[in-house]
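Please check our next protein.
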Amino acid sequence: MESFEPYPSLALALLSGLLIGLEREHSKPGAEEKRGFTGGVRTYPIFAMLGATSGLMGQLPLFAAALGLSLFLAVGYWRDVEQGHVGLTSEGSALLTFFLGALATAQVIQPLRMRIFVVASIAVAITFLLSAKSELRQFSAKLSRDDVIATLKFLIIAVIVLPLLPNEPLGPYGALNPYRIGFMVLLIAGIGFVGYVAMRLFGHGKGLLITGAIGGLVSSTAVTLASAARAKQTPALAKVSALAVVIASTIMFVRVLITVAAVELSLLPKLAIPLGVMAGVSLGAVGWMAFRDRAHRSETGDVKLSNPFELRKAFQFGAFFVFILVASRWATETFGNAGTYFAGLLAGLTDVDAITLTMANLVKSKSLEPEVATRTIVIAVASNTVVKAIMAVVLGGWPFASRIVAVSAIALVLGLGLAIAL
């Protein structure tokens, strides 16, 4: 492809400008709006080709063309301001299209294949941002200032603090790797954030499937607590509230498998059998319960979830992860495999993510046998499942808890039996 240069680069510039121009054409102001129109499907490809050709001629022509275009856009912006229209989207996209054209013919990114991917990716991303104006504004309106601040704080840790952490074993038993601990915190918070964003987009009462599934991504325990309270307050909703809990538990089994796959893929085949069976039992129960109670599908309960990117909660998880990491290594060295199993039992009383990540990391570092890690994770999941069943009985009453207990018992018997047999 390099032998045909500069034609591939010029074609890339033209197509990038055409893509952005098509979006701008469909976003042109109506006849009733008295403001200027920067351009559309013809103008933006011209902007891109202006950048491409001036870039081929050298730095001075490129600078002169950029200056001329900037002056042209400034005049248009000033005219819009005088008419009461303020906004830099069209001017900014036009200037960016010009520089995309220049980048398409520049030699700063080599080889040509990589340059094509970079320019095309930027063009697609910009076109998406321009076309998703209303959706992005709706999403922004649903976010509170606390959500934004908490997310920014966490991103500071992700992109600034994390790379500075030492990546070496430290602390008791050499069990603490600061970089790996920080990465695990970010990983689990990221998984939770997927559920949180979806919950904010669709709302708390948009259906039982969404509530249970998204709640299961963030915390199946939170779904259990909220559903138990609703069932206790409104007995008529006991069955549909129980369905929300079973859905969340099904997602929890899958979430554990995804977490393991992200850290130590070799552990997944051994863990997929017991947890896969448990998830299958739970999923079958979801189908059966949904069919029997289909008249109540529109009912749902509120699950109050806080932003998982909130800094304090991230540090709390990190502290718990460190504790489980040290305790697991101590129990393993002191009591052998029995100590590891006991650590899994205790960890599952409150959370399955920390012990899951710990076991996966120990296998990754060759500090633990995969069979032991698999059984420990299953024990933690079983412990967490038992705790949720007890919560359901105590807080929600037997009409609410009966189905949860039945599904949990079947899943536990099959899952633990397979884990022991492996």
Observations:
- Residues 141-421 form one domain.
